[in-house]
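Researcher: We're teaching a course module on how sequence relates to structure. For the next exercise, students receive a sequence and then see the predicted structure as tokens, so they can try to spot secondary structure elements on their own. Here is the exercise chain.
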Amino acid sequence: MKKNIFAICDQEETYLLRLADYLSNRSNVPFDIQAFTSVENLMAYEKEHSIELLLIAERTFRREVMTLRTGRTILLSEGMASPTPGEYPSVYKYQAAGALLRDVMGIYVDAPGEGAAAYPVLKKETQVYAVYSPIRRCLKTSIALTLGLLLAEEKPALYVNLDPFPGLSSLLGVDFSGSLGDILYDIREEKKGLIHQINSIAHALGRLDILPGVRLPWDLCEALYEDWKKFIAVITRETAYGVLILDIGCEIDGLPDILEECDYIYMPVLKDRVSQEKLREFDSLLEKMGRHALAARITRLSPALQPEIPPDLPYAQALLHGPLGAYVRKLLKEKENL
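Model: And here is the predicted structure for the students to work with:
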């Protein structure tokens, strides 16, 4: 199935080509990107092709554009008055490309047309990783993020936090525009275009895309296993992500079934007595449930505790270049040699 067309029109050629190149290389943009430096070329193209999403610079805009049949038209604003007040929504042109993409997808998902329905993406199978532990303060999130950052160097990757209190905004210095709770709500309401909602929220951390956790912890409590199954299906079937990392931080509904959906399961552990008792209870539960095959697939990790990271050092950089980065690199290399 062909991708929907995302057309960009701007007379500022250098800006246009850089933006088009960025969007074309983003794994979470399910569109065929077409760039035009003139309205004439855009209109000629539209006669032969259906344009689902048009992003056009205010300086380039002409009244003829209003005759184009597009699913959604958005203006690239430089802060000046719009030539068509009230006609079209706008996004600020000279912001970071990732922020611009989130703004565009946010507008698009609010009023999707027929083309907003999800469609299969032609790609290799998505590998799903879970990082989970019944033990707290065991470097679970740090390991999951490091795993995502390293895997993203090879394949398009998405990290999703399933903690009741993620802490990612302050940790990464990012002001997220939405949350996993928004996605879970749309899943329960059976809304279409979930992939576009995900695009409007996901934040790029280097090559890794981050989907922030919930803002309210009870959003996780209300989610059922069927919701998680649908969510995983959207990522694995309808996006170009080759890797999905689930950072699971609480006993969410259907936890054993969710772990069964994963290709790789990593469990950070600690050696103190209390932690070992928690692990024994977890193992006993799997035994009573008859989940012997699942128990055998869990890889237990015992990394050395990472020292405190200075507040002025970016957390992602510290993970990659510190002892935890070396530990996870070795882990992945051992997996490849199996």
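Model: If you want an answer key for the exercise: The first strand starts at residue 4 and ends at 9. The chain is about 40% helix and 20% strand.
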